[in-house]
Amino acid sequence: xxxxxxxxxxxxxxxxxxxxLASMTMKKTSVxxxxxxxxxxxxxxxxxxxxxxxxxxxxxxxxLGSDEILEPGESITVLVDCATWDVKFVAEDDAECxxxxxDICEEEGTWTIDDLGCD
Length: 119
What we know:
The chain has 119 residues and is mostly beta strands. It is built from one helix and seven strands, in the order αβββββββ.
């Protein structure tokens, strides 16, 4: 049952966007780069977080890296260039949540991943 709930329930609902995201390939950011704090407020580990410019058909590198996870209650801060991004979160059971067309071009922001859903 937990897997079924996670498949539709873990996600980014509380997106309080006050800021921009950094280059998802973790390249050097521009002067327009912003800080985004991503907090895992869900009940599950987040194994991967990917970003992609909306005009690209592939995802960038996992910002958590190959040996890191974002456990419940933990946060990560990333720098992202001002642009419009798609973001994919992958939970510990490989359930995915994709948030599309995030136009982010301000100084700072906070995202909270919660258990309420991916919509």
